Amino acid sequence: MPVYYDRDCDLSLIRGRKVAVVGYGSQGRTQALNLRDSGVGDIRIGVREGKSADAARADGFEVVSVAEAAGWADVLALLTSDEAHRDLYRDEIAPHLKPGACLVFAHGLSVRFGLVAPAADLDVVLVSPKGIGPRIRDLYVEGEGVFCLFGVHQDATGNAKALGLSFAAGLGCGRKGILETTMRDECESDLFGEQVVLCGGVPELVNDAFETLVRAGYPPEVAWFECFYELKLVVDLMFARGVAGAFEKISNTAEYGAYQTGPRVIGEAARAAMKGVLDDVQDGGFVKKFMADYDAGFPELLARRRALGERPIEAAGRRLAEVAAKAGE
Ligand code: NAP
Ligand code: MG
Predict the structure, then answer these.
(1) Helix (H, G, I), strand (E, B), or coil: what is residue 249?
(2) What is the dotted CATH code of the domain comprising 3-181?
(3) Distance of alpha carbon 8 from alpha carbon 24, whole angstroms
(4) What is the mean pLDDT of the chain?
(5) Does ligand 1 have an atom closer than 6 angstroms to the CB of 52?
(6) Do the beta carbons of residue 248 and residue 241 sit within 8 Å?
(7) 161 C-alpha vs ligand 1 centroid, how far in Å?
(8) 169: enclosing H helix or E strand
(9) How many of the other CB atoms lie within 10 Å of CB of 325?
């Protein structure tokens, strides 16, 4: 996998362009601020009136409508929530873009699954910083950067790669490593990882383990410590040392138990489920369901979100926060 650093990127390219940042949330704000601090002088924020527009003005940016931003930009970073890309691009961006403009995406979802179909005269690149927006900003200010996944999806001008790398360097990613991949690989593996491991699998594992203990008569507070609280400690250790390195620091009891039980919990059934998830991602089935829920006003997303907050494990967490607060009384 090719990797690029600041020394491989020409910052003067992006500094010489009119850059529109559409969306001013977690990524939009961070990217606009980092680009400005990297010497990009001509930035406009394309958002509708409201919280995001107010935040962009408070940070000293010129705020314009999305349509105006699209007609003005040499480079347009589309950083609204993914589900908003389809309508926004069709109605307010595509009709106004200049030929030869460069579209930048932080996630390949809308292009990979056809929610956005850029005209052939546009450059289209992926610049996906691997981090949560505010954290990327903090690191940039400290003189550091985060990895980013980078890919050229469409090169109409012959200049897409150099310009995209310049944009990525403007975010600070050249300080750490810009890894070249494709929108397809980034998008499909991102969806798979967040569903199977990060946001789907791990919370479900934790919750079901917690509820198994509680149903068997163990106090919820104790179950909460053993199944949830300590997860952070172990993950920090794994993050710092790798799994094998972390296992050098845990007890032999824990290590032996891990070898016995890991494959019992994550066995044939779990692997078959993972393969099914990957199929749903690759054939577009997942994105189709997601957009159908969005089009209906997110009834399923909102109902599930409410139910999540009402789980007993959340109440146990709140009780322990109250216990800790009493220490200060
Ligand atoms: P976010 O924090 O939820 O911000 C969304 C922004 O989009 C807000 O400024 C919102 O403005 C605007 N927006 C939403 N719908 C809109 C519409 N119909 N018209 C105009 N503006 C609209 O989003 P995010 O997490 O930064 O995600 C942005 C992109 O970055 C996505 O492609 C995501 O996959 C990608 N990404 C995110 C992260 C991350 O750290 N969160 C990491 C890597 C990649 P309003 O205030 O007006 O609603
Ligand atoms: Mg993700």
Answers:
(1) coil
(2) 3.40.50.720
(3) 29
(4) 97
(5) yes
(6) yes
(7) 24
(8) helix 160-170
(9) 9
User: Tokens 């397809």 identify what position?
Assistant: 184
Task: Tell me how far apart the alpha carbons of residues 116 and 104 are, in angstroms, rounded to a whole number.
Answer: 12
Residue 85 among the catalytic residues: no
Q: How far is the CA of 194 from the centre of ligand 2 (A)?
A: 6
- Locate tokens 């961070």: which residue? 30
pLDDT tens digits along 130-151:
999 999 999 999 999 999 999 9
Q: Is 24 in the pocket of ligand 1 (CB under 6 A)?
A: yes
Alpha carbon distance 186, 109 (integer Å): 9
What is the spatial distance between Cα 84 and Cα 65, in angstroms, rounded to a whole number? 15
The residue behind tokens 């979802």 is: 109
User: Would you list the DSSP string of 72-113?
Assistant: H-SEEEE-S-GGGHHHHIIIIITTTPPTT-EEEESSSHHHHT
CA atoms within 13 A on the CB side of 136: 29
Give the pTM: 0.94
Of these residues, 85, 96, 107, 153, which one is catalytic? 107
Structure tokens, 104: 């930048």
| Pocket of ligand 1 contains residue 49 by CB under 6 Å | no
Give residue-wise pLDDT tens across range 193-209.
999 999 999 999 999 99
Q: Which CATH architecture has domain 191-327?
A: Orthogonal Bundle (1.10)
Extents of the domains making up the chain: 3-181, 191-327
Whole-number pLDDT of residue 327: 87
Distance CA 199, CA 216 (A): 26
Tell me the per-residue pLDDT of 219-245, one tens digit each, with 9 for 90 and over.
Answer: 999 999 999 999 999 999 999 999 999
Of 27, 48, 93, 138, which is best to mutate to test ligand 1, by the most ligand atoms within 8 angstroms of its C-beta?
27
